Amino acid sequence: MAGYAFILILFMSLLAFYIGRSAGNRFHVAAGRDTHSLPGYHGAFVAVWVGIPVLVLVLLWLGLQRPVIDQLLIASLPDAMTAGADRAQLSLYISEIRNVASGRIFAEPTEAIRIAANSLVRWEALARWAMLVVAMAVMLVALIIARSRLTPRFRARNAVERVLSGLMIFCSLVAILTTLGIIVSLLYEAWQFFRLVPVTEFLFGLRWEPQIAIRADQVAGQGAFGAVPVFTGTLLIATIAMLVATPIGIFTAIYLVEYANERTRKMVKPVMEILAGVPTVVYGFFAVLVVAPAVRQTGSLVGLEISPNSALTAGAVMGIMIIPFISSLSDDALKAVPRAMRDGSLALGATRGETVTKVLLPAALPGIMGGILLALSRAIGETMIVVMAAGLIASLTFNPLDSVTTVTVQIVTLLIGDTEFDSPKTLAAFALGLVLFAVTLCLNVIALRIVQKYREQYE
Amino acid sequence: MSSSDASLSASFDWSSQTAAARRRKRHAADRRLQLCGIAAITVALGLLAVLLISLISNGYRAFVQTMVTIPVYVNPDHVNADDPARGNYRAIVAQSLQALFPDVTDPAEQRLLGQILTNNSQFFVRDRVVADPSLIGRTFELTTPAADPFDQLEKGVIRRDLPESQRRVSDLQIGWFDKLKAEGRISTPFNWGLFLNADSRFPELAGLSGAIVGSFYALLVCFLISFPVGIAAAVYLEEFAPKNRWTDLVEVNINNLAAVPSIVFGLLGLAVFLGFFGLPRSAPLVGGMVLSLMTLPTMIIVTRASLKAVPPSIREAALGLGASRHQVITDHVLPLALPGILTGTIIGLAQALGETAPLLLIGMNAFITAPPGGLLDASTALPTQIFIWADSPERGFVDRTSAAILVLLGFLVLMNGIAIFLRQRLERTW
C-alpha cells in the first residue's frame, strides 16, 4: 500500500507540474516580459507544494501507524490481562495478536486475543485506506492553493529556490543526524546494559563469557562481561597487523617516491590500490584457506604448537589489507616535503638514502604518524578478517600463536541469529560498539588533525 | 677537532683508502634502503598474487559442474496421472539407476548407488513430469548434477590413490561412476547453476542468483538515497554554505564519518531501522539504507572535489548574464561536474558492494533458497553469501566460495572499469 501511495504522490506531482507550467506558459503569452519567472518554475512551485508536504505526511504516517495501533490494541484488551503487566508482557501480547492476525497460529488463542486480532486486521485495512484518502485530499487542497497563488508577477523562482536551499541544508544535516543516531543508539543501548552489568565490571573485569542460558536459573545463566580479554585480543591483533603493514608500507612509499622511475610508479601504484579495494570478506577467506594452514605447517616444522585461529594469522592478513593505506599516506607526506630540502641535501653530497633517512623522513614524520594512526583505527575496527580467522573464546594472553578474540568478533557473534533486544547478550554488543566507536573516533580525530596541520606547514 | 676540520677543507684526500671505504659504506647503505623498498613492494605484490592465484586455483573448478545423464523410466505404478505432483519420484530415480546396474541387488549397495546423483534429482523428475504429464509410462533422458563427492572425484580433488577409508567415496562407488563414465553418461558442462540457482545446502546445487539479486536491490536503494542526498549536501557545503562554526562542524563530521568502522553502521541500522522503526530483518531495503549512510561521506567528498574543479569563470559568466545562483549550479556547474560525480558514485557503490559486516548485523546472512521478490523480502547479498559458504563444511563449498569471490571481484573490476572509462572519456581539465 505504501508503494501505491508513493506512486500516487509521484503522479500527482507530475500532474501539478504540468498544470503549473501550462499556467506559466499562458502568463508568458499574455504578459510577455512582465512575468517574473519562467514557466518551468511555476510548474515546479506547484509540484513542490503538492509533493513535499504529503511525502512528509506519508512517511510520518508509516512510521507512527504501528505504535499507535499497538497502543489501541493494548487498550482494547480486557483489564484483567493488562493490569500489572510489564512492558515485556505487553509486547508478548502484541506479537501474539499479530501472529494470529496473519494466520500463524501455533496454539489455540484466547478469546480476547482473537477479538484483538480481528480488530487489528480491521484497523490496519482502515489505516491503509485512510492514508491514501488523506494523502489524496491533502494533495488536492495543496494543488488548489498553489495554483491560486500563480499570477504573472508571482515570484515562483524565488519560492522554488528557497525550498531547494532548505532541502540541501537538510541533506547536509544527514551526516550530522547519522553521527547523532550512532551516538544516541549506542549510548541508549549501552546504558541499558550498564543497568544490568556495572561499568567497572565491564571495563576492568577479566572474564568474558557472555553465554546466557535459556532459563535464568541454569548454570552459566549469569554470564560474565569483563571486557579486558577482548580489548587485549583486539590490541594484540592490531599490533601484529601494524608490525606487518608499517615497514612494508613505509619502505614501499620511500621506494616509490625516491628511487622508482615514472614507469614503475605508474604500474605499482594502481596494483597496490587493488589491495585496498579487495573486500575484507575475501581476505578473511584467504586467511582461513591459505594463511592459517601455512602458518600451522611452518609452526610444526620448528616444533611450535599453533592454534588454528591464531592471532598471528588474523593479524598478518589484516596487515596485508592495511599496507596500501600506510603507503599512500606516507607517499603523500613524503611528497609534501619541499623540493628545496631534498635538493639541498643531495647538493651537499648526501646519497639518496641519507636524504631519505636524515631529511625526508624526519620532515614527513608527523604525516606518516597520522597515516599510521588512521591505519591503526582501521585495524581496530576491521571486522570480517577477524570474524573468519580469529577465535571466539576470550583469553587473556599476549601470545600471538594463541587464539584470541576481538571487539568486532564479539559484536558479530553476539548479534548474529535471532536475539531479543533486551537480553544482556545483545546489549553487551552495543556496549562493545560504543567502546569501539569512541576509540576509533579519538584515533581518527587525532590522525586527521595531524595530517591536516602538517599539510598546512609547507603550503 | 678544529685542526682536523681545517685539514678536511684544505687538503682532504678524496681518493684515500679510508675515504673510499667510507664512500662504499654509504653507498651500500643507500643500496640497502633501495633493496628494502624493492623487497617491500615485492612482498606486497607477491601476497596479492598469492591471494588471486589461490582463489583462481580453487574457484575455477566451480565454473564447471559434473552432470550425470541417465534414462528415467516414469513408472506408472508410482505416479498418478491425475495428480503428478504427489508421485513417489524417489523410487522412480532409484529404479532407473538400478536398471543401469542390474547386478547391484543388495539394498545397502543400492543406497550407495543412489548417492551418485544429487539429492534433489527426484524433484527434477517431478518438475519434468508435472510440466509434461504425457511422460508417465515413458522413458526420458535426465541430466542431473552429480553429488558433491563425485563432482570432486571427477575434478580430481578426491584422489583415487588414497586408502578407501580416507575418502568420501568407496571403491565400489568409484567403479560404478567409472562405468557410467565409460558409457558416456558423465559430462562437465559450464555451470550455469552457479548464476541461476539460489542457495542450497548441497554444494552441487548452490548458486548465487539470490545473492546477486539481493545485492542489486541493496545497491539500488543505496544509490537512490546516497546519490541525490550526497550531491545536495555537497552543493550546499561547497556553493552556498557560509563559513562558520556550524559548517566546520558538518565538515569535520563528514570526514570522521568516512573513517568510522563499518560494523558501527551495522549497529546503527540494527538499533534504529530494525529496533526503532520496526523494519523487517534481512531486507535489502534496510541493507541499502545502512550502506547508503556509509557511502554518503565518500559521495559528498568526491562531489565537492569535482565541483571545486569547475572553474569560477563559468560561474561568473552565468551570474553576469543574470542567472540566479541556483540556476548557475543546476544549469552550468552540475552538468560540468557530473562526470566526476558519476565516477565517484560508481567507486562508492563498488565499496558498498563489497561491504559485509553491517549486512551481517541486520540479518542479511539468512539461508534463503529463492531470490528476493522485492525490497522487503528476506535476502542475502554477495559478500554475505561468501561468508555463509566459507563457513560450510562440505569440500564443494570451498570451490563455490572461491568462485563466488571471483564473481564478486568480477563485478568490482567491471564497476571500476566503467568508472575509469567515464573519467577518461568525459572528464575535462581546464
From TrEMBL, chain A:
| Record keywords, A-Z | Cell inner membrane, Cell membrane, Membrane, Phosphate transport, Transmembrane, Transmembrane helix, Transport
Q: Domain (ABC transmembrane type-1): give its ranges.
A: 231-447
Stated membrane topology is: Multi-pass membrane protein
Gene3D superfamilies, per database record: MetI-like
The molecular function terms of the Gene Ontology recorded here are: phosphate transmembrane transporter activity
Q: Which InterPro entries match?
A: MetI-like (IPR000515), MetI-like_sf (IPR035906), Phosphate_PstC (IPR011864), PstC_N (IPR022182)
**One GO biological process term:** phosphate ion transport
One GO cellular component term noted in the UniProt record for this chain: plasma membrane
Kindly list the residue ranges recorded as spanning the membrane: 6-23, 44-64, 126-146, 167-188, 235-259, 271-291, 311-329, 427-451
Q: Which PROSITE patterns match?
A: ABC_TM1 (PS50928)
Predominant location: membrane
Q: Which compartment or compartments is the protein found in?
A: Cell inner membrane; Cell membrane
Q: What does this protein do?
A: Part of the binding-protein-dependent transport system for phosphate; probably responsible for the translocation of the substrate across the membrane.
Protein family according to the UniProt entry: Belongs to the binding-protein-dependent transport system permease family. CysTW subfamily.
> Which PANTHER family does the UniProt entry name for this protein?
PHOSPHATE TRANSPORT SYSTEM PERMEASE, PHOSPHATE TRANSPORT SYSTEM PERMEASE PROTEIN
Q: What is this protein called?
A: Phosphate transport system permease protein
Q: Which source organism?
A: Tepidamorphus gemmatus
Automatic annotation (TrEMBL), chain B:
Classification via Gene3D superfamilies: MetI-like
InterPro entries noted in UniProt: DUF3333, MetI-like, MetI-like_sf, Phosphate_PstA
Q: Which GO terms describe its biological process?
A: phosphate ion transmembrane transport
Keyword Transmembrane found: yes
Q: Where in the cell is it found?
A: Cell inner membrane; Cell membrane
Q: Name one Pfam family in it.
A: DUF3333
From the UniProt record, which GO molecular function terms apply?
phosphate transmembrane transporter activity
Cited CDD domains = TM_PBP2 (cd06261)
Give the membrane topology, semicolon-separated if more than one: Multi-pass membrane protein
Question: Is Transmembrane helix one of the keywords UniProt gives this record?
Answer: yes
Q: Which residues form the ABC transmembrane type-1 domain?
A: 212-419
Q: Where are the transmembrane segments?
A: 33-56, 216-237, 257-279, 285-307, 333-354, 403-422
**Gene Ontology cellular-component terms listed:** plasma membrane
Q: Which keywords are on file for this protein?
A: Cell membrane, Membrane, Transmembrane, Transmembrane helix, Transport
Family statement: Belongs to the binding-protein-dependent transport system permease family. CysTW subfamily.
Provide the protein name: Phosphate transport system permease protein PstA
